[in-house]
Amino acid sequence: MTEKQTYAADGFDWEGLRAHAVDAAKHAYAPYSNYPVGVAGYADDGRLLQGCNVENAGYGVTLCAECGLVSSLHMTGGGRLTHVVCVNGSGEVIMPCGRCRQLLWENGGPELLLMTVSGVKPMSEVLPDAFGPEDLA
Ligand code: THU
């Protein structure tokens, strides 16, 4: 990870949030892929939330780290995610898979800021023209 990827111009402590994601990855249960993932984020009231991937002998049943993050968001009071970082077991920033981009969209909306492999981006750029709750209205 480069310095450029670590710090954003907005003054937010992305490196601190990444460190929380690295801690979360240490709890991953990934005996099949050997690819631990950790994610950390903040809710709009400042709560820190974390998640790790949890695999299953039925491979397709695997829970991505973001699933845990979103569950934790709702378990601890709900609200909206504002900042998220996802890392692998080496602490490198990774991109959420397609399904998890949809999860982040639902729970953070277009303004959620995500640390990506090419810098901080809003979800509106990470998942353009997304399908979301308002489409069901
Ligand atoms: N994984 C995540 O936890 N989040 C993602 O966004 C990408 C993939 C996990 C699922 C699986 O346990 C491992 O990474 C390899 O695909």
Automatic annotation (TrEMBL):
Q: What is its EC number?
A: 3.5.4.5
Q: Which domain of life is it from?
A: Bacteria
One GO MF annotation is: zinc ion binding
Return the Pfam families for the record. Answer: dCMP_cyt_deam_1 (PF00383)
Q: Where is the CMP/dCMP-type deaminase domain?
A: 12-134
- A biological process term (GO) from this entry: nucleobase-containing small molecule metabolic process
Q: Which UniProt keywords apply?
A: Hydrolase
| GO-annotated cellular components | cytosol
Q: What PANTHER family does this protein map onto?
A: CYTIDINE DEAMINASE
Similarity remark = Belongs to the cytidine and deoxycytidylate deaminase family.
**Name listed for the protein in its UniProt record:** Cytidine deaminase
